[in-house]
């Protein structure tokens, strides 16, 4: 996939994920694609974005003249402040997360299984900086949404029967948003909720390893 196409795909997923945020929510955005969601929160929606490194009130990515090298998110990217921003240490930040005060966590994913297991922190054999806060977020946040491409760079499904990569958490994912579909994890199995523009129900089923439940209420051409 071309670099430009990849950027447009990430933008599409982030815009759709923003619709999950309700006025008054406290939200944590994982590193990578989830941080883009901050760019699409409208001015008339009050959402407080929290970061593990001790920041509550993250705004959109800065323009060139807004960059403050001391103002960063958990992924060490420069960010802006929203009105009412506050700062604190990481212990307080993780207290917020573990205490159940985060309404929604939007995280990236490498694999999600049919029962909501998430693998998003390590590929065996590859160097990593650390596990970050994802393992706390998947258990502390009230609602966990994973955003990711529907298939990996080899074209293989990322929504699978069972994760082959090390788990971040077992049975923790509530909703998956990809470039092709919105899927809810339910006790009965994964349910197809929406199909993105350009993809049919059959397209999505063929690109998903686990069997999807398809009900009459599926929204086609949703985003």
UniProtKB/TrEMBL annotation:
Keywords: Transferase
InterPro entries, per database record: 3-oxoacid_CoA-transf_B (IPR012791), CoA_trans_fam_I (IPR004165), CoA_transf_AS (IPR004164), NagB/RpiA_transferase-like (IPR037171)
UniProt xrefs under Gene3D superfamilies: Glutaconate Coenzyme A-transferase (3.40.1080.10)
GO molecular function: CoA-transferase activity
SUPFAM superfamilies named among the record's database cross-references: NagB/RpiA/CoA transferase-like
Keyword Transit peptide: no
Transmembrane segments: none
Keyword hit for Transferase: yes
Pfam families per record: CoA_trans
Membership in a protein family: Belongs to the 3-oxoacid CoA-transferase subunit B family.
Self-association and partners: Heterodimer of a subunit A and a subunit B.
Protein name per the record: Probable succinyl-CoA:3-ketoacid coenzyme A transferase subunit B
Source organism of the structure: Lentibacillus kapialis
